[in-house]
Fold:
Amino acid sequence: MHPDIERILISEEEVDSIITRIAAEIDRDYAGDDKRLLLLCVLKGSVVFMGELMKKLTVPVEIDFMKVSSYGSGTKTGGKVNIVLDLLRQDLDTCDILIVEDIIDSGRTLSYLCNYLTLKGAKSVKTVTLLDKPSRREVDFTPDYHGTVIPDYFVVGYGLDYAERYRALPFVGILKPEVYTHH
Ligand code: PRP
Structure:
């Protein structure tokens, strides 16, 4: 445990079994010589999930990275997505992209990225998220694969941060309110 964590929402063991299950689904769907799976990590929060997921896949994978930022905190109405690190490759027409996210909140990031990569000519674009907060949706978005649906708690760990802290915790935990209300 960590002194700033109120309680563990998803334990290390639970996250591991969730990712094992997702990896089996992806393995099944991307088997075959006609597929060229490119895992696209959306920095920074997805790094831990992506690292675990890729180790569990048996189909061949390539990896790449993008970073986006959202004005208006990304979750406020009208939030606009901006590309901070783009995907600089010319072979997208042969890539079956699977965008890897740690969490879906408003839905703006993945909605934007799916449109963007499709317009750039990707062969296919799908999405996987470890955590999903459907109660926070502002745009209609459903991932192709997902780990688990969670209530609207302030969660950190397993890649997720508060002010760049707690990303390295090996579980998903609920942050104590006094940590983010005392400033
Ligand atoms: C988080 C998360 C998703 C996005 C989801 O990233 O990793 O990318 O927000 O929110 P949305 O569904 O409302 O778009 P964040 O902007 O916190 O950056 P980080 O991953 O670098 O922490």
Q: What stands out?
A: The mean pLDDT is 94.
